Amino acid sequence: MSTAVVHENALTAVNRSVQVDGATLVYRRFGNAGSGAPPLLFLQHFRGNLDTWDPALVDGLAQEREVVLLDNRGVGASTGAVPDNLEDMARDVLRFVDALGLTAIDVLGFSLGGFVAQTLALTRPRLIRRLVLAGTAPEGAPDIHRWTDEVYALATPDSFDPDGFIRLFFSSSDEGRARGMEFLARISARTADPDEPADLAARDAQLDAITRWGIPDPSKLARLAAITQPTLVANGDDDPMMITENSHLLARHLPRAQLRIYPDAGHGFLDQYPKEFADHVNAFLNGG
């Protein structure tokens, strides 16, 4: 890999924008553009935006490749209405990629972003070289159509609740809670050009999309045979939101999958272990 200097990082990268089908999509693009590796496109979780990517994770990946963080239509500072289905979300991402002139990318999809990533791989298989599916599930998988009452309450409050977020994303152990607090401090450190929070309309449309994706249908698993790119599937060992068993299910049905489960971790395992996950993703994207 090239040792080109990376001048911007997750806390200083400027917001950029591009017009896509009547909407302004906001993104950040930075990292080691001289590495020769395809750019790594980040697709965010339910209610997340550019600022909720962990700087420790993003910067660990940007040292070895260019990274592109995207607010899809209607999310954060991007304009337009959030689609209520995965096909339209993926369509907007593809038009964004085309607008940037990218012809080959790697993709890291987290949670809802993992749904979008799978749809991209099925829709335009030659675009994506390697795929990272973090804390996510295949279409039609069990236990995502209707979250438990506890998960629903923690995931959908009208305003951000730090304690509820940590309970939902991090292990309940003292170590897990401490790492959750450290994560919140890291994402609060950005002062320049902050993103807008995802609003309630975005929450409701994304929830509709997740619910549609989660309608139980085992036949949908057959679609995964068409995702032939090398894929890293990862999760915590106790994810209450996208249940860890669905990561095992993905790995069993994807033809070229590697599975990595992180101990004493939940849905936000990548924020609980950002440096470790960055090392594992770098090794995977570099051909390991």
Architecture overview:
With 288 residues, this protein is of the alpha/beta class. The chain has a single domain (16-285), classed as Rossmann fold. It is built from ten helices and eight strands. Helix 1 packs parallel to helix 10 (274-285). The longest helix has 14 residues, at 86-99. The mean pLDDT is 96.
Short summary of the structure?
This protein is α/β, with parallel strands linked by helices and 288 residues long. Helix content is 36%, strand content 17%.
Helix percentage:
25-40%
Order of helices and strands: EEEHEHEHEHHHHEHEHH
Taking pLDDT < 50 over at least 5 consecutive residues as the criterion, the unreliable ranges are: none
Quote the average pLDDT: 96
Give the biggest sheet: 8 strands, mixed
CATH-derived architecture = 3-Layer(aba) Sandwich
What distance lies between the first and last C-alpha atoms, to the nearest angstrom? 14 Å
Strand content: 15-25%
Strands of the widest sheet, in order across it, are: 1-2-4-3-5-6-7-8
Radius of gyration: 17 Å
Shape: globular
| Number of separate structural domains | 1
Q: Could you name the CATH homologous superfamily?
A: Alpha/Beta hydrolase fold, catalytic domain
Could you tell me the CATH topology label.
Answer: Rossmann fold
Q: Helix- and strand-based class?
A: alpha/beta
Which CATH first-tier class would you pick? Alpha Beta
* Total of DSSP H or I helical runs spanning 4+ residues: 10
The total of beta strands comes to 8
